[in-house]
Amino acid sequence: MRQSSATGGRATRRRTTFSLAAALTGTAMLATACGGGSETDGRVTLRFSWWGSEERAQITNKAVDAFEKANPDITVETESIDFESYFDRLSTSVAAGDEPDVITMGGAYPREYAERGVLLDLAEVSEQLDLGALDEKALSNGEFDGSAYGVPTGVNTFAVVANPAVFEEAGVELPDDDAWGWEDYAEIAGEVSEGTPGDVYGSEDPTQPDTLDLYANQRTGLGLYAPGGGVAVERGTVNDWFELTTALEEAGATPSASMTAELAAQAAPEQTLMGRGKAGMKLAWSNQLAAFREASGDDLVLLRAPGETTSAEGTGMWLQASQLYTISKRSEHPEEAAALVDFLVNDPRAADFIKSDRGIPANPEIREHLEGDLSESQKVEFAFVDRMSGLVDGDFVIGPTGSTESVDLLQRTHEAVLFGRQSPSQGAKQFVTELSDAVS
């Protein structure tokens, strides 16, 4: 979930979008703020940061305006930056003691920063922040070591994005996603490639940490990481995954190794094969559907991932927070920061602007509130998440500190296997060893 950024440092007004250089300059100038909160003439000032597009900035600022109207003694300065630069800038601001009061995070970052003593235990602001209405399995995304540090902005689930137009061109029927496994996925991808022109593929290469997490969960009941920390994925599982993906490439069901490596460096939806109408299937998060639909111009659909019903361990999929709102432990105004987070996730006035931009709302009452005002893509996404919420049986395991390196580690190792520099077995050994070193 890749966005653009505008240039400029912090202005006297609260609406700013940062380039990295300007952000670092602003951080140095504000290094004495410690948490970002301030108070002038009885008014509290908070800082709130996130990553994303200009459109996300606009709708979030409207939600913040609604919060300020409901809370006239609180001013919120908002800070937006592109995804690629966001966590570098956050790391710099934390080191300077100048992180925002409310910080948007994702993946393993909440755990990493909480273990460094940066984030507030949300039990301390339970009177201002009501988590009781949110989906329990979604809340697990922000919980570890018996405490809650993050509030899900909304939920995703992993899916196969499929292009019915490509399937129709190939003369292949869409799969029954309640009864297919990974062998079926490979066979169908091959059939779609055979029935379409040479620049169209049955599938983009599905390798990414999330897919491997799912695959491992289906096989052993544990994904990449153990609930108590450390690496859980077995070498044999990674070896089998690499054998699957090399077989897909050799059969022409997925692009060549060189094209897959090139595509891995292109994150924008319009640069992917799916976004260009050149792929029948792609493993992706459900909240990416609208972007792929817009890029391709096709009515793409969401399918349940293969292997969910053929696994002896049961379903491997989970509900995952699109993003998480966290609060700085050094905030001078944690109660007001908690009130802002509560408003963003529980108040219809915020939902009217944010809608599903940060995932399907984790509050069922907010989902119901929005159902009458959804785009076609959002209707498909809402329906899929509702369907999956009744099928998933696992909680999300937050990766330990160091697990954010998994993306680069897996990509580098997988490319070595695809290009034949390593066997699947060698690649599996290297990946598990390097990932274990990264999180130790």
Automatic annotation (TrEMBL):
It holds the Pfam family SBP_bac_8. It comes from the Bacteria. Keywords: Signal. InterPro entries: Bact_solute-bd_prot1, SBP. Coiled coil: none annotated. Residues 1-33 form the signal peptide. Gene3D superfamilies: Periplasmic binding protein-like II. This is ABC transporter substrate-binding protein. The lineage of its organism: Bacteria, Bacillati, Actinomycetota, Actinomycetes, Streptosporangiales.
